[in-house]
Amino acid sequence: FTKSSTKWGDDLGKKEIEKDLAQMKKYCTVIRVIVHTQMKLLHRRQKKAHIMEVQLNGGSVADKVDFARKHFEQTIPVTDVFAMDECIDIIGVTKGHGFK
Which of 29, 69, 70, 76 is nearest to 52 (CA)? Predict the structure, then answer.
């Protein structure tokens, strides 16, 4: 995180990030973002955040990249992403303990 946060500090790093986003708009077909939970708000014993990769759907690729760029380091409520009783496709979920 410290290496990526220094990119936002100087103008050269910001230009590099904007160049990467422009390349995504030009060449990518699927846009996914990495999200995590805020464990401080859950008041649970667990301190490690849940990390998940979410695919953005709807609109053009440029719209998806702009949406992701606008929401960098922002809090997004679950109700804005998922609706009640919505069917969700899961790519893969495992704890990695093998067969029992």
Answer: 76
> pTM for the complete prediction?
0.70
Tens of pLDDT, residue by residue over 36-64, are 888 888 888 888 888 888 889 889 999 99
Sequence-separated contacts (24+) of 91-94 with Cβ below 8 Å: 91/53
Residue 51 pairs in a beta bridge with 36
**34 in helix, strand or coil?**
strand
C-alpha separations of 81 from 15, 55, 75, 100 in Å: 30, 11, 12, 34
Burial category of 70 from C-beta neighbours within 10 Å (exposed 0-12, middle 13-18, buried 19 and up): exposed
Residue 1 to residue 12: CA distance in whole angstroms:
18
